[in-house]
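Our collaborator T.R. sent over the components below with a one-line note: 'Predict the complex.' Nothing else. No constraints on interfaces, no templates requested, no preferences about which chain binds where. So this is a plain run: every listed entity goes in together, and whatever single assembly comes back becomes the starting point for the next discussion.
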Amino acid sequence: MSITITAFEDSPDRGRGLARDMRVRWALEELGLAYDVRLLSFEEMKRPDYLALQPFGQIPSYVDDGLVLFESGAIVLHLAQSRTGLLPVDPNARARAVAWMFAALNTVEPPVFEWSMATVLEREKPWHADRLPMLEGRVHDRLQQLSAWLGESEWLEGAFSAADLLMVTVLSRLGNSHLLAEWANLTAYVSRGVARPAYRRAFADQLAVFEAASARKRS
Amino acid sequence: MSITITAFEDSPDRGRGLARDMRVRWALEELGLAYDVRLLSFEEMKRPDYLALQPFGQIPSYVDDGLVLFESGAIVLHLAQSRTGLLPVDPNARARAVAWMFAALNTVEPPVFEWSMATVLEREKPWHADRLPMLEGRVHDRLQQLSAWLGESEWLEGAFSAADLLMVTVLSRLGNSHLLAEWANLTAYVSRGVARPAYRRAFADQLAVFEAASARKRS
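Returned assembly:
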């Protein structure tokens, strides 16, 4: 049995670990599973043979012994449900952790992603300054609610789980912005997540891909 | 064992079935499960006792014999994984259907929701006309890829599943817009979904809530 995922040959995040293969790499490292990475150019991601694996032409995809998956959330959930270590064993606690996985991707990520994309793609537009308070307000509201839930806890629900893995990757997109810095407990939560040995191994691996691409461009 | 979900006392979508309780109602109807609905005002949704159930002050929440869940995607997944009828039995086919659940909520819904919110909240803003092609372009790209995947198939992966349930509710947000009408197979797909008896029962139930609220306001 051999796992292969896909990732950007030359990540637009410049190795900051924000591309969605990072979530899957981290989960695989937490579970101690070996995997191969197939690197793709932007052109290759839009070709019919890749669209057959990943209908939206995105990374990552996941292939394991005949099973083909896509969507980083679904891949992390599959790994967490089919192995031990990333979800509680008790059925109710497990369902709660899965609820937090969806909260990370469906309630917290959309305003974070919208803010993040606007600051990149619309920064020079005449309306950006007028829209920014609205975008920041949406992020602020979600972080306030998340901070209130987390309180002084180490993780969202008991022990570290796939929910924390996803939530930390979502919050990481806020980087050093004032939006995250406002919440000391969330800043500490992200720090705890990225300090995990599995995160650090996954981060180093995706950074090495970016650095190799940069070296090829220079030579 | 008794299931209770929460929903808007007075839905901002005016009974069009776009609020996220619709997904859970539809899943419960597909599975033939009885449930109660606790209706909430906007004020009640932000109170501490409700935030203990739903940390982001949203609907729906789900309570079943000591298990408290939130996030419509997580609730539908929990129902689908703990009962028979909304996911394939074969493990690989089941993982594929779950991947499509994430695709509906994490890849298709964000641009649809962003477009939908902008057309409501930013319609009068001086920049709306300039931004609209970008927002429509993002929706267009996703629908093009989805349409290519669906082809002439009836559902996303074999038989109707929780993935179709979520995807149909996401596409329904596009209503009669030209964005959806451009894709005949997606229009037919949504029509097949909303023609299901379980959808129609769920829709009628949420509409009755809205109509009761309207009648109270008139009297």
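Summary for T.R.: The interface with chain A takes residues 51, 55-58, 66-71, 73-75, 77-78, 92, 95-96, 98-99, 101-103, 105-107, 109-110, 113-114, 122, 125-127, 130-131, 142, 145-146, 148-149 of chain B (CB under 8 Å).
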